[in-house]
Specification:
The protein is α/β, with parallel strands linked by helices and about 150 residues long. It has a single domain (about 5-145), classed as 5'-nuclease (Rossmann fold, 3-Layer(aba) Sandwich), CATH 3.40.50.1010. About 55% of the residues lie in helices and about 15% in strands. Strands 3-2-1-4-5 form a 5-stranded parallel beta sheet. Helix 2 crosses helix 3.
């Protein structure tokens, strides 16, 4: 089934990798990620991410002095109409700690998942196969749609 059909009308948490793959026009994943971004842009789906995504996407452009790419990431994450970038609250931190204890995920992944769970999204979009083991939320992995 096409990913766009699954996510239409839903609230989707966008993990860092799908955003990077979209912005950098990765040829392997563009056909999968573009329709998701189009759904969110058009308001046919609601997008959510966290400030962890902002932190992660800015590292390489800042390291390389690529202001244009850094600005593109900031624009999408901080100014998009149908994509909300959530700050990390105490409740999210507590949930992230619980997830780390239960599954052994890395801190950034635990925060991303906790944000999605606390905000009650329908799907968590990632390209990290290891995150599929979680039971608390539906994880959709881009690689499964190749």
């Amino acid at each position: 089934m096409e990913l766009g059909r699954i996510l239409k009308g839903k609230t989707v948490f966008i993990d860092t990798a799908p955003l990077i793959l979209f912005i950098e026009k990765n040829p392997k994943y563009s056909a999968i990620v573009k329709p998701v971004v189009a759904l969110i842009d058009s308001g046919q789906a609601k997008g959510l991410t966290s400030t962890i995504t902002l932190l992660e996407v800015l590292v390489l452009p800042l390291r390389e002095g690529n202001k244009k790419l850094a600005d593109a990431y900031r624009s999408i994450l901080l100014s998009s109409k149908n994509l909300e970038t959530c700050e990390i609250s105490n409740a999210i931190s507590e949930k992230a700690a619980t997830l780390r204890a239960k599954y052994g995920f890395k801190t950034p992944d635990s925060i991303q998942l906790a944000t999605a769970i606390i905000r009650r999204v329908d799907y968590f979009l990632t390209n990290d196969l290891a995150l599929k083991q979680i039971n608390e939320i539906k994880v959709v992995v881009l690689e499964d749609f190749i």
